[in-house]
Amino acid sequence: MRLIGVDVGGTFTDLVCVETRTGALTIHKVPTTPHDPSEAVLNGILELCELAGVARESVDRVLHGTTTATNAILEHDGALTGLITNEGFRDILHIGRHQRPQHYSIRQEVPWQDRPLVKRRHRKVVAGRLAPPEGRVLVPLDEAGVRRAARELRAEGVEAIAICFLFSYLDPAHERRAREIVLEEYPEVFVTTSAEVSPQFREFERFTTTAMNAFIGPKVRRYVSRLEERLAENGLKADLHIMGSNGGVATARMVSALPVMTLLSGPAAGIIGGAWAGALSGRDSLITFDVGGTSADIGIVRDGAFAEASARDTSIAGFPLMVPMIDIHTIGAGGGSIAHVDAGGAFRVGPRSAGAVPGPAAYRRGGTKPTVTDANVVLGRLDAGNFLGGAMSLDVAAAERVIDGLAAELGLSRLETAEGILTLVNANMANLVRSRTVQKGLDPRNFALVAFGGGGPLQAVDVAAMLGIPEVIVPPAPGITSAMGLVATDMKYDLVRTAFLSSLDAEGAAARATATLDAMQAELAARLAADGFAEADTGFERSGDVRYVGQGYELRVAIPAGPLDTAAMDALFEAFTGLHHAEYGRINPGNPIEIVNLRVSAAGRMPVLGRPAVEQGGSLKAALLGHRPCTFRTGAGLETVDTPVYLRGSLPLGERIAGPAIIVQKDTTSLLRPQDSMVADQGGNLLIQVGGKD
């Protein structure tokens, strides 16, 4: 089967073509087109087919990681959105909870109040009310009121409508009927209900997630539809699948209805790709380190599996989010991050980025601000004549000019300023890693750092040294590892149902949990069957969100397949106490425990991506392209060293190479400092042994 993975980044769009039978890979990068990302996607696919020597109609699947939804939220550039909700609850989206982003600041920004997803004038209320715990109807739905609200919102020009009623996770009938009425009155509107987006308790988070789905819905639907049309017009018959934030792909149809699934789509693919690369060398305890043009994303892989973010940690642009999502954390630190002196006189790097346009000054696109990429050029770490495999040349003089401007402002030399930029951005990234390891009770020294993205292999050894991480893994095609993750994952869907099952009635909890989980699994099996998956190619995982009664948040506990009995429930509750002790350092013996939500994750197994074909290489002498002066910080200060430059594809396998060294390939550049060493292994990775800080 022939697969194409396409990941859209802030600066470049990365592509890979994989022949699953032979493992043959062809990679390609094209500049991202911010005005219309589908333009770069289509052009890149057509160019990739030519490079790979394959007919475009022979491609079976296109798997796509998109930033359309994420950018719409980050830039607050979504649709004019309306809301229909219960009488008396018009302002749930505004009030939120008692928590604030900063507990003690009186001048803080509260995202859902300062930049609401739905303006108050577009929030309509109707009579109708359900009551817990069974979802009994207290007040019938006012269908005439819903019709009136739909007409008012149409007259106000809204493009999307979110329907959110209290306790709809217990019975979605009112929301479904309201949806039918809205579409009768306003057929062309994008309409979504909280019961289909996030059918679980916590009304503020559920309402916000649904409003977010509506806010980004029209833009994502237009983008996906336009991309499908363009692919078909250009002779591509491949099925289009979109990466979700849960670590799996979904059909274009599903994503068009639930675009909120695609938030952090690209970073999720990066973690999958990083885990795949680590497995090639037998490593399963990994910190994935994805540095692109505008941001750095990190994820944690333990025992070969990645963690899903908890409800208390899941948000984007400050808005709480309740959808399944890989635990990913991002910082505004990338190759395009701008170095500057702030209003207080402090030397800073990021979070502002030069992006794809104008980009770093060295890119010859009109950039006038000093960036991380410009600093790497000035320090000799990037080859101006061999960037992107020679497809792009860098302007060294322009990079020196913008660094000199900042140097004059700081009172430093050119090299001190450039090295200072890298030290600051690396420290920012190391602090991000600490927040997800040290602050969570994990020792980063027990992990390997998988460095990818266009900038990851350049910055990785310095970041690893700051953290005491002993090994850096550079994947076979680091610049397109996120695209590799797209072709290394499965179709994946998730369902969640709020249950509230107590340990005080283990027998009753077992019966209810079994019935609910079986019904959820049957629903997901039908969905995968509709997507063309045979029963033998599907798999299911069950879990529950568990807490002590009275706690505010839950821990995720695995639930075995098959019918549950009291013994299985007792084992589940015991597993929870173990997780609770690991997370919080204590347990509460005798306190009742409850399962708040039941979850089922379904996977439709895609073709297995095997080991890539690894070039055997020759001798170190044959791989040597020449030498270049490169500046490093050593114990004696800054030192410029005559540094060998090697072509990665020609490196001999298994031979240890001492630093300093620069390893070039089409999609990135890897760096070894004087105290580091490296081996190119049979799995296709570069394994860098990290020396000390000096």
UniProtKB/TrEMBL annotation:
Q: Which GO terms describe its cellular component?
A: cytosol
Domain Acetophenone carboxylase-like C-terminal, chain residue ranges per copy: 509-681
Which InterPro entries has this protein been placed in? ACX-like_C, ATPase_NBD, Hydant_A_N, Hydantoinase_A, Oxoprolinase-like
SUPFAM superfamilies in UniProt? Actin-like ATPase domain
The alphabetized list of GO BP terms reads: glutathione metabolic process
Per UniProt, the keywords (alphabetical) are: Plasmid
Task: Report if keyword DNA repair is assigned.
Answer: no
Task: Report the GO molecular function annotations.
Answer: 5-oxoprolinase (ATP-hydrolyzing) activity
Q: Fetch the PANTHER family from UniProt.
A: 5-OXOPROLINASE RELATED, HYPOTHETICAL 5-OXOPROLINASE (EUROFUNG)-RELATED
Q: What is this protein called?
A: Hydantoinase/oxoprolinase family protein
Which species is the source of this protein? Paroceanicella profunda
